[in-house]
Input
Amino acid sequence: MVKKPIIQDVTDAELSVVPPLRSAAGLPSLTETIPKALGRMGAARAAVTLANMNQRDGFDCMSCAWPDPPDRKVAEFCENGAKAVTWEAEPLRIESSFWAQHPVSELRERTEYWLGQQGRIVEPVYKPAGSDHYRPVTWDDAFAIIARELKALESPNEATFYTSGRTSNEAAFAYQLFVRAFGTNNLPDCSNMCHESTGAAMGETIGVGKSAVSYTDFAKADLIIIMGQNPGTCHPRMLTALEEAKLAGAQIVAVNPLPEAGLINFKNPQRPRGLVGHGTDLADQFLQIRLAGDMALLQALSKRVLAAEAASPGTVLDHPFLREHCEGLDAFAAHIAALDDDEVRAATGLADAEIDELARRYLAADRVIITWAMGLTQHKKAVPTIKEIVNLLLLRGNIGKPGAGPSPIRGHSNVQGDRTMGIWEKMPPSFLDAIQREFGFDPPREPGFDAVQSIQALRDGKVKAFVALGGNLVSAISDTAVAEPALMGARLSVSISTKLNRTHAFVGEEALILPTLGRTEIDRQESGPQFVSVEDTVCAVHPSAGRVEPVSDRALSEVAIVSRLARAVLGPGHPVDWAGFEHDYDAIREHIAHVCPGCEDYNVRIRQPGGFVLAHPPRDERRFPTSSGRAKLTVNELETIRVPEGRLLLQSVRSHDQFNTTMYGLNDRYRGIHKGRHVLFVNPEDLAELGFGDGEHVDVHSEAADGVDRTLPGLRIVSYPTARGCVATYFPEANVLVPLESTAEVSNTPASKSVVVRLERAFAAH
Ligand SMILES: Nc1nc2c(c(=O)[nH]1)N[C@H]1C(S)=C(S)[C@@H](COP(=O)(O)OP(=O)(O)OC[C@H]3O[C@@H](n4cnc5c(=O)[nH]c(N)nc54)[C@H](O)[C@@H]3O)O[C@H]1N2
Ligand SMILES: Nc1nc2c(c(=O)[nH]1)N[C@H]1C(S)=C(S)[C@@H](COP(=O)(O)OP(=O)(O)OC[C@H]3O[C@@H](n4cnc5c(=O)[nH]c(N)nc54)[C@H](O)[C@@H]3O)O[C@H]1N2
Ligand code: SF4
Ligand SMILES: [Mo]
Output
């Protein structure tokens, strides 16, 4: 085992700020990655993991949900994928003595960075009621404790069962089945905080909440509009697809308050000229929009499209498509005609000429893809904004044909698959009926709690047990000061995890951490080594099999943990053969085939080279499974956030060295931030107007309607070319500023990218 001293906790004492980079993913990325992986995993482990990453018989990168190209290269991974693999597969373990040395109250004082650096959790640990320490416990005892506590609840609805999107399809299917057999639909997941707004908007308007494009569509597009997304950091290999599209003649437009490096220029490490040369200029146009201004921009674009049609009737809109497949055009057109151009200017901060230019590009293109991520989903008006993407695309038939369509780019590597498997607090009756037919028990029908509602229910004492299959809810959810005590109010907290995080420290009276295998590790069961399956952001489903020895022989696979948990809680004689699930994952896949739409013949199709692509009626056949059977153009009232004088609108972003709440390092290289995270990016003109300067320290106060003072203290101001009036800092630290009740309409996703804030000079420099 590699021995490494436990690092000291981090401060921002050595924080340094340099100018941001213009291009992403060239030589610095490779020189950063490989030596670090070799140094931390050891040469043999590094060689096996990196060589098998994203290969057909290897494992799926556990980082983001970007798909694999049909023709894979020898090294089919990016810098951030390599960081994720190193973080998991590094053979560094938490020794048994750690738990006696570090009380839970001390763990609460530690940062995510420190907690993650302690190494892999290698044995189940238990904190009894009244104790401030975890201590090692046997697996049998762990399951017995959980069973006792869950069975003691007055109702199954007093427990909530969280899932994070790294979980495999097999584990997710077994988990939701266990939870429903136990008797509740309380199945919150990370998607509630992520692309829930996308699912709500697309589900209503086109009938499917997933990307309507395939990998190969990118190279066939004439125009790709990237809104509210930072692919250079968050989906790095997307830049390869964008470069291919660009070289094939596509235009690329970026819409973002920040001039993110990857959107502007890309140096492809897999092309000789990318290593040494200037790289490829990706964006033909960059619209530096104000936070939450996208709905106004999209309406303004549709207004220009409709005006062009009025000027030359019959030549601009795709009339046959609209007639045959859509509804709602007349109401939509009437509504958009009344759009107030001044409001568009105020909301977007863009000049008319910039919007005209993008409208011209849209009208000149036959095939248009619009992609988006958290910059669109985490606002109050996220759902109507995404509906406006659908409106704009429908007008010219930009869906269900090659090189065109709405394409949400999902975050966690299997967050989309987990939903397909039934991880959702409000699965439709058809899915619940299928469970009943397949297993012979009646699953609960009333919808359960989502992530925000789970925290509210814990806070209000309505939920008393919290179980998490992965993730780090206390850090990921909004309103940290509410979430921490809410989770500590539970009677029982259980986390199935690879590594320590703050959710293990904010626990109820009794708590357990159950160590699990990661994607990189060989998963041996009675019938032999197992593989699992995952679904990427373009609906491609494929197998994933770990290749290195597990970090501990006491950690169990997620499937084994769920199966044993179910046996302990549901008792013998349950209609589901839980033991069979654990012995051979084919048994789970047989049921997936019968229950999950589109997964027929799952065991056969998952074994085809490269797996298979799930059916997507709008993409494949222009069939729209909405309530009316037609794609819906919708009318959405524009509402612009009015930021009072002297206040700013704040968004929370990811740094280049983090994966959500996991900190791989403390640099955000593309934005020029080194060895620290407590920074606030502010436009220089705003700084001048407000009387602050670069390098000063400020406390950020959020100004919520409820009057509660939420403060993030001691941020170093970084003068930065962000849009006027719009500031940025890092997630998850920013969650202290977001009120729990401040969520997107319909989807209930925390509105963590539009918080009205006030800056106050910090007394002491930090
Ligand atoms: N390295 C790394 N990769 C990741 C993750 C990670 O943490 N680290 N997380 C994964 C997950 S779960 C997810 S969901 C994805 C997230 O992927 P992204 O959504 O790309 O990640 P964010 O850092 O949230 O960046 C949001 C982007 O939207 C812009 N933006 C914010 N508000 C607005 C707005 O109102 N309008 C417009 N047009 N733009 C706006 C921001 O400036 C920023 O560029 O990444 C996944 N991949
Ligand atoms: N302010 C603000 N808040 C946000 C966001 C934002 O942009 N701004 N983004 C939101 C988004 S998009 C998301 S997706 C959520 C993320 O919320 P989560 O998904 O809950 O958080 P993660 O940080 O991805 O979870 C990391 C933990 O997962 C565990 N883990 C890692 N690998 C495995 C594995 O293979 N199996 C198991 N069982 N456990 C594993 C480790 O213990 C690790 O500490 O945060 C949301 N919160
Ligand atoms: S683009 Fe995403 S899935 Fe692909 S290697 Fe990079 S982090 Fe992993
Ligand atoms: Mo996400």
The pocket of MGD (ligand 1) is lined by residues 63-64, 80, 194, 227-230, 233-234, 255-258, 260, 289, 291-292, 294, 373-375, 379, 411-412, 651, 653-654, 658-660, 753 (CB under 6 Å). Residues 294-311 form the longest helix (18 residues). The longest strand covers residues 709-719. The chain has four domains: 16-89, 93-194+414-555+564-603, 196-408, 648-761.
